[in-house]
Design brief:
mainly alpha; 4 helices
């Protein structure tokens, strides 16, 4: 099966997996071993199994990282799991990034604020 044979449904599952990882990574970092975290890991395991064929085709490194993360979590190695989940999330973000989307119309005229840690710089308009 080729990447072009996968439809929009598969793409939506990749977006769902990315959203799950976006929430799961900090959850594992802060609340490893909690029942809610265990349920979230089970959800990611299920989503990963459902999209494994597509991931193996288009982003095998993300699939391998997800499998390692879930194995680490099952072994109670939550720091390692969190690292692998972060890597998988980053790989999916690159895969799902679209440069063809136009910027918001207002973004072209919005001022850009430059932040600095230099104490000699003028005060920020936000520090009132």
């Amino acid at each position: 099966m080729t990447a072009s044979e996968h439809g929009a449904a598969d793409l939506s599952v990749l977006y769902r997996l990315h959203a799950q990882l976006k929430i799961l990574v900090p959850t594992v970092a802060v609340a490893a071993g909690h029942p809610e975290t265990t349920a979230m890991l089970a959800g990611v395991r299920e989503t990963t199994a459902g999209v494994a064929g597509l991931l193996d085709l288009v982003e095998p490194e993300a699939l391998a990282a997800l499998r390692r993360a879930l194995d680490h979590a099952a072994a109670g190695e939550f720091d390692e799991s969190c690292s692998e989940l972060t890597y998988a999330r980053q790989r999916l973000a690159v895969l799902l990034r679209r440069d063809d989307r136009p910027r918001r119309p207002d973004a072209a005229t919005e001022p850009t604020l430059r932040w600095t840690l230099n104490p000699e710089s003028p005060p920020s308009p936000w520090s009132r």
